[in-house]
Recover the amino acids of this structure.
């Protein structure tokens, strides 16, 4: 028998490993099957991020328990209270037999885990008091939290990231969440969405007493190897070159540390490093807060481009693949702490921080921020020594202001500003009005969260007389009379001076709607065989309105905000499909495909109208043409609808940006530009060291279209608009901002006013309240489809439909203007500004302010306040005006 060889140590190790491996594999399988925990179940999620469903649910129990300090009775946390209110955790948080035996053996009292929970709750209350000292003081309602804890323990929760996988909540999850909130003196609290720093459109959906929201992204653990998100830059034109001057990055984010680096911002050719801005502005920010330079709702506006900024996203991968078609293209990578890290694409916005801040502060001033008025030195002639808006409700000239500013040569959107008065915000949020808000002011029948988004792009209204430049362009393009009318206008323009009353320029200056309707329905040929309404429809399309309205579509009249592209009816063909933020832009001569409100819209098909009916429409109440109220009593179905569209009412709609884009098209033509750059928010999408993504160049090219307006036509129309503030409908507004002599000589501005019909014009708030007291909730967009809605309000209040409009429609004012930043009457038109405001009510009379086309126009005032300061013709130093209470300004 052979002698057995002694086994070596290596052989014993191999045998032991072979025995252990099956056991380990079995344990892993058992854990995965029996208790999957919170592990990601999606392959992409596994590489991108990790979210603990239980941890998130436990943190969210504190959402309802964090309250305004002093708003609820304080309950001192104690172990007894914890165990009483959360009996589901009595066993893990109570004193077990083992803990009791050990405590007795040591000669010490037994301390239940509930006592540690109570101590954690007390610490969190202290953290909240310190963290909220600079904002609304907050505390922890202990009983609320304990009740929420009892309700969730033992239940199953599901994360949005891992649908179909449910996780049982445990008492230990609540302990872990409490520990996370108190760790590092509450550092985690900074990542949450607090009421004062959250966009109003989001807050509108919260409960009235809710102070904080905790989202999955706030507790997401990102894979450190998945890279760094790209930056968002605000730019300023240095000659023809956009230069990043600021970037948007929250406190504590990696972008805060990295976006100032040249490899991310791109070559700056001697310009200083861009500065950090924490985020979007709030309604109560101090005037020195840099967030005034950021458009409201920016995160919502840029949401479709989020993927481009994330290096692990499909969109970024597609862009990178297209760029790497060039073998010499560098990788999108930077070095962080000595290690190379992938980075997403960065986005240069067209927003000019200084212009945005100016527009936002003027809008805040006119909506009741007296400190903004004092800081800018805003003054109105009729207010004398009082602050602007002193005689109005809330001390606010207007309840809402929306401002869009576009650079004419490039189409860059330099500002998208918006503000609401305090009570208007309360109404939109659906909160009860307090004593400072007049209960008689009509309000919507339900909360309107969308109304709290940036009104320059998310708030549309009937454009009223701001459509007259479109109509005038159509008239001068008429194949039968256009050339003759244009020659007469050019002759008058060459002679100089105020336009003749019966000229097209004179009718533009005075906003003579009746004479414009005469021209639109071919009075010059006795209303026969007239197709000018459809010529106006086609002209609106050439100005960028009516996009995709040829077929019935819900998004008829919309455009992409990001790149200035029309919303494509056909899918994008070839290359990487562009993201789009689809916003209402403008529509004219459209109609719904069905009678109820809210259906898809389409272009109104051409129709022939009875000549006798048109002739009767053109006559005033005295049976004669040429009186002030002719066309106001028109009757006859479809004819009335087209007349209403000719007034810029009916189904016509536009946003401040859409009206600005319309006039920018005209200004570019007057400058002699062959190509029009549609208004767009994105300047470029680029990788590291300024490397442009080739795919995005196509996106930008889609926003460049050939100019369709002859230069002499554009010059003629702007020549008429240049007298609006001298002797036309904007004169009253101009003389509130400048003196009368300067308004007569002011030659760097050409603007157009607009006043959509409002049934409450001429009525007192008491009368409005009586009319609305028994009015059922209704959507009142229907009444203003009819031209008869321009009749005096006293006749309309008896109509149930019109009464519904009185109680839910808003009293708007428009102004749109092109101006030269040189401040001189020669040279190209540089900028276009459009302003939409919701008028306010006068305290003393209880009537709406700014009735009629020729009355006060706060929209025009806002535009002139902004343009005058851009150009330098208004003083920068604050004016010495009184506060609302009559005391001198500091």
């Amino acid at each position: 028998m052979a002698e057995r060889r002694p086994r070596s140590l290596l052989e014993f190790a191999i045998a032991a490993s072979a025995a252990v491996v099956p056991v380990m594999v079995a344990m892993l399988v058992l854990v995965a099957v029996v208790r999957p925990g919170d592990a990601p179940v999606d392959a992409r999620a596994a590489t991108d991020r990790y979210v603990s469903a239980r941890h998130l649910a436990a943190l969210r129990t504190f959402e309802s328990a964090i309250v305004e300090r002093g708003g609820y009775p304080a309950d001192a946390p104690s172990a007894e209270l914890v165990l009483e209110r959360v009996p589901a955790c009595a066993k893990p948080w109570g004193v077990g037999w083992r803990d009791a035996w050990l405590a007795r053996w040591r000669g010490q009292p037994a301390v239940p885990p509930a006592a540690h929970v109570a101590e954690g709750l007390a610490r969190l209350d202290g953290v909240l008091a310190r963290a909220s000292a600079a904002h609304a003081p907050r505390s922890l309602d202990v009983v609320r939290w304990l009740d929420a804890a009892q309700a969730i323990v033992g239940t199953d929760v599901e994360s949005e990231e891992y649908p179909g996988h449910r996780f049982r909540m445990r008492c230990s999850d609540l302990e872990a969440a409490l520990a996370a909130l108190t760790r590092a003196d509450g550092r985690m609290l900074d990542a949450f969405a607090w009421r004062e720093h959250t966009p109003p459109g989001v807050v509108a959906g919260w409960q009235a007493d809710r102070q904080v929201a905790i989202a999955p992204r706030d507790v997401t653990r990102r894979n450190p190897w998945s890279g760094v998100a790209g930056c968002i830059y605000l730019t300023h034109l240095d000659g023809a070159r956009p230069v990043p001057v600021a970037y948007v990055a929250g406190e504590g984010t990696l972008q805060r540390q990295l976006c100032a680096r040249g490899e991310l911002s791109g070559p700056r050719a001697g310009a200083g490093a861009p500065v950090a801005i924490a985020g979007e502005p709030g309604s109560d920010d101090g005037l020195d807060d840099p967030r005034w330079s950021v458009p409201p709702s920016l995160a919502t506006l840029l949401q479709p481009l989020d993927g481009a900024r994330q290096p692990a996203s499909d969109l970024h991968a597609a862009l990178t693949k297209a760029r790497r078609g060039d073998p010499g293209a560098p990788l999108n990578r930077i070095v962080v702490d000595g290690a190379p890290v992938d980075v997403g694409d960065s986005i240069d916005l067209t927003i000019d921080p200084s212009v945005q801040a100016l527009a936002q502060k003027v809008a805040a001033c006119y909506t009741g921020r007296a400190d903004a008025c004092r800081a800018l030195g805003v003054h109105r002639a009729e207010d004398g020594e009082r602050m602007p808006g002193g005689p109005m409700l809330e001390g606010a000239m207007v309840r809402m202001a929306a401002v869009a500013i576009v650079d004419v040569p490039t189409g860059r959107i330099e500002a998208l500003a918006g503000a609401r008065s305090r009570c208007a915000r309360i109404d939109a949020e659906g909160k009860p009005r307090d004593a400072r808000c007049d209960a008689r002011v009509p309000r919507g029948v339900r909360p309107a969260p969308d109304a709290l988004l940036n009104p320059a792009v998310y708030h549309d209204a009937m454009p009223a007389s701001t459509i007259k430049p479109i109509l005038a362009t159509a008239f001068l393009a008429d194949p039968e009379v256009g050339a003759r009318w244009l020659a007469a206008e050019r002759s008058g323009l060459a002679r100089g001076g105020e336009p003749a009353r019966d000229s097209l320029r004179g009718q533009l200056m005075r906003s003579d709607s009746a004479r414009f309707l005469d021209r639109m329905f071919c009075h010059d040929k006795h209303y026969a065989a007239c197709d000018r309404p459809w010529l106006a429809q086609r002209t609106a399309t050439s100005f960028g309105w009516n996009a995709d309205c040829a077929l019935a579509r819900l998004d008829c009249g919309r455009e992409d905000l990001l790149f200035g592209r029309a919303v494509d009816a056909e899918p994008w063909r070839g290359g990487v499909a562009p993201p789009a933020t689809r916003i209402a832009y403008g529509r004219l001569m459209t109609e719904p495909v069905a009678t109820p409100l809210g259906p898809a819209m389409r272009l109104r098909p051409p129709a022939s109208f009875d000549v006798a009916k048109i002739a009767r429409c053109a006559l005033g109440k005295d049976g004669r043409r040429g009186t002030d109220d002719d066309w106001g009593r028109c009757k006859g179905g479809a004819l009335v609808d087209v007349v209403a569209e000719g007034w810029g009412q009916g189904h016509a709609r536009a946003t401040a940006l859409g009206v600005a884009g319309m006039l920018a098209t005209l200004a570019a033509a007057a400058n002699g530009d062959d190509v029009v750059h549609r208004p767009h928010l994105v300047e470029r999408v680029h990788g590291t060291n300024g490397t442009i993504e080739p795919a995005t160049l196509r996106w930008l090219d889609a926003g460049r279209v050939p100019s369709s307006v002859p230069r002499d036509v554009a010059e003629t129309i702007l020549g008429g608009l240049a007298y609006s503030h001298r002797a036309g409908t904007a004169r009253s507004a101009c003389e509130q901002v400048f003196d009368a002599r300067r308004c007569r000589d002011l030659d760097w501005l050409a603007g157009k006013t607009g006043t959509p019909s409002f049934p409450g014009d001429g009525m007192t708030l008491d009368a409005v309240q009586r009319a609305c007291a028994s009015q059922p909730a209704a959507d009142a967009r229907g009444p203003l489809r009819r031209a008869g809605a321009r009749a005096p309000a006293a006749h309309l209040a008896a109509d149930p439909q019109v009464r519904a409009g009185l109680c839910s429609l808003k009293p708007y004012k428009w102004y749109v203007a092109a101006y030269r930043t040189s401040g001189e009457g020669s040279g190209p038109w540089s900028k276009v500004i459009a302003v939409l405001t919701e008028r306010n009510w006068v305290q003393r009379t209880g009537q709406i302010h700014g009735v009629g086309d020729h009355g006060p126009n706060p929209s025009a005032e806002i535009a002139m306040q902004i343009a005058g300061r851009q150009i330098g013709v208004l003083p920068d130093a604050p004016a010495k005006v009184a506060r609302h209470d009559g005391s001198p300004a500091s």
In short: The chain has a mean pLDDT of 83. The CA atoms of residues 509 and 727 lie 7 Å apart.
